[in-house]
Amino acid sequence: MVTFYITTLGCKVNQYESQQIRQFLQSIGLSQTFKPENADIAVVRTCCITRNASSKSRQAIKRIHKANPECVIIANGCLIDSETEEKPQDIESLVLQRENQQLEKILEQVCGKLKTEERIFESGLKNYGRQTRAFLKVQDGCDGFCSYCIIPKIRTDISSKPLENVLNEAQELVDSGHREIVLTGVFLGAYGKETVKRSRWRQSVNREFLKLVDSVAKTPGLERLRLSSVEPGDISEELMEIYKSRTNLAPHFHISLQSGSSRILKLMNRQYDSETFRQKIDLINESLHKPAVTTDIIAGFPGETEADFKKSIEMCRYCGFSKIHVFSYSSRKGTGAENLNGHLPAGVIKQRAAELAELGDRLAEKYRNSLAGQEAAVIIENENTQSGKCERYLDIKLTEGNFRRGQLVLAKILPSGKEAAPCR
Questions:
Q1: What kind and span of H or E run contains 396?
Q2: Per the database record, which ranges form the MTTase N-terminal domain (predicted)?
Q3: Handedness of CA 176, 178, 179, 182 (dihedral sign)
Q4: 403 touches 386 (CB < 8 A)
Q5: What percentage of the chain has pLDDT greater than the value 70?
Q6: CA–CA separation, 235 vs 242, rounded Å?
Q7: Can you tell me the distance from the alpha carbon of 168 to that of 124, in angstroms, rounded to the nearest whole number?
Q8: Distances (CA, A) of 306 to 278, 299, 361
Q9: Separation CA 354–CA 297 (nearest Å)
Q10: 90 class by beta-carbon count within 10 Å (0-12 exposed, 13-18 middle, 19+ buried)
Q11: What is the pLDDT of residue 183?
Q12: 52-83 per-position pLDDT tens digit
């Protein structure tokens, strides 16, 4: 029997698409292995959001080749579809599959004729493999052209999955045992729209997005629904009303700040300013009990002055983020930021990234400590450690009990914020 191995770099959309590939390969009779040395075929879903991501994608390919030189490696995803000069090479058994090449056809060449008419990336998932949390991709594509981002030149087709299909897939995932679903997309808040540019929308509030969230939350048996990533413009009073009425909606939002300086946000071509971001955080905090807000910030964007950087620091303190993902700015060929003036020395970028990361650690600890004595719903992910994610996206270890993987356990968070005692 032909065996396959899959590894995925990058975002939740990439991870979802890897699951689609996994489901397809299993449907045509291939057997999955979790060790590359045992694979006949390896699929590497690449990422190129940063130069570091491109490097990690290449390293993943090299590791598989080193472990199994006879394995045919099929690399696809954003790095392969990009116009960067960072693509992997010099491996004879490597096949680069671009977006306009059907993976089905490449597999047919690799492992013989396939008896299927199914198109991989048009099929919904029936299960999410061995994971307790299932991602459900509902939107693809972006034309926002943030000046640091290469994705609008790669994922150019803006599309949304019909709501009926989303609901059917959500029910399939719940029926297969997944207690939590995470809605994801390249620009999730643009669900149902033909553009992500809000200035071209008839209304500032996206009713299709609101209906999506409310409808999926009603899925019978769904214990928890989470949004993967939203923009400040997606946060509205209407969305907060839905959150208050649906108890299975996780009080956690990942909202990319990128910079606390309105001047830098304008250079980044973001669709909000710092005051708008602050107002959205206020709205979330006023509407929900101890919500968790995680974020992304870019350190050292071209033209960022010390004053601009301090505004990012101040904004982080104001928002009290439960986690900050810090990215050191790196120039990407083909992006608007590549041609901006004021590119900063590597040392300055490194120092600012380190300061943001240190602040992020302090804020994360402060947020965890604030939850002491609160009740949390933990979905067990690791039976050996009796730990899993709670609704606020924190890893929590239970102090006692013997719960099975996938089980939802109500527990009271202890002073450390990292452990919880099961409620009796």
A1: strand 395-398
A2: 2-115
A3: negative
A4: yes
A5: 96
A6: 11
A7: 9
A8: 20, 11, 21
A9: 12
A10: exposed
A11: 98
A12: 888 999 999 999 999 999 999 999 999 888 87
Classify burial at 394, counting beta carbons within 10 Å of its beta carbon; exposed 0-12, middle 13-18, buried 19 or more.
Answer: buried
Q: How far is 93 from 74, CA to CA, in rounded Å?
A: 9
Tell me the three state secondary structure of residue 377. strand
Query: Rounded distance, CA 231 to CA 147, Å?
Result: 16
Q: Are 378 and 396 in contact (CB under 8 A)?
A: yes
pLDDT of residue 92: 80
Q: Which helix H or strand E contains 123, and what residues bound it? A: none
With contact defined as beta carbons under 8 Å apart, do 188 and 159 qualify?
Answer: no
d(CA 295, CA 11): 14
Q: How far apart are CA 22 and CA 45, in angstroms?
A: 11
Report the alpha-carbon distance of residue 170 to residue 151 in Å, rounded: 27
Residues 6+ apart with CB under 8 A from 302: 267, 329, 337, 340, 341, 342, 343, 344
| Residue 361, both tokens | 């650690």
Nearest to 76 by CA among 156, 155, 187, 157: 155
* pTM confidence score: 0.92
Q: What is the spatial distance between Cα 55 and Cα 63, in angstroms, rounded to a whole number? A: 12
* Pick from 235, 239, 285: nearest CA to 256: 235
> Is residue 179 helix, strand or coil?
coil
What per-residue confidence (pLDDT) applies to 369?
Answer: 95
Contact call for residues 87 and 53 (beta carbons, < 8 A): no
CA end-to-end span of the chain: 49
Tokens linked to 216: 């999926």
Pick from 107, 84, 101: nearest CA to 334: 84
CA atoms of 292 and 370, how far apart (whole Å): 11
Q: Round the CA-based radius of gyration of the chain to a whole number and report it.
A: 22
**φ, ψ at 385 (rounded to 5°):** -100, -5
Identify the burial level of 202 via C-beta atoms within 10 angstroms of its C-beta, where 0-12 means exposed, 13-18 middle and 19 or more buried. exposed
Pairing of strands 72-77, 133-140: unpaired
Spell 16-39 as b/e; 16+ CB within 10 A means b.
Answer: bbbbbbbbbbeeeebeebeebeeb
115: pLDDT strictly greater than 60: no
Rounded Cα–Cα distance for residues 327 and 318 (Å): 20
Strand order of the β-sheet with 252-254 is: 252-254, 292-299, 323-328
Determine the pLDDT at residue 272: 98
Task: Report H helices in 151-206.
Answer: 163-175
Q: CB atoms < 10 A from the CB of 218, how many?
A: 12
Helix (H, G, I), strand (E, B) or coil at 299: strand
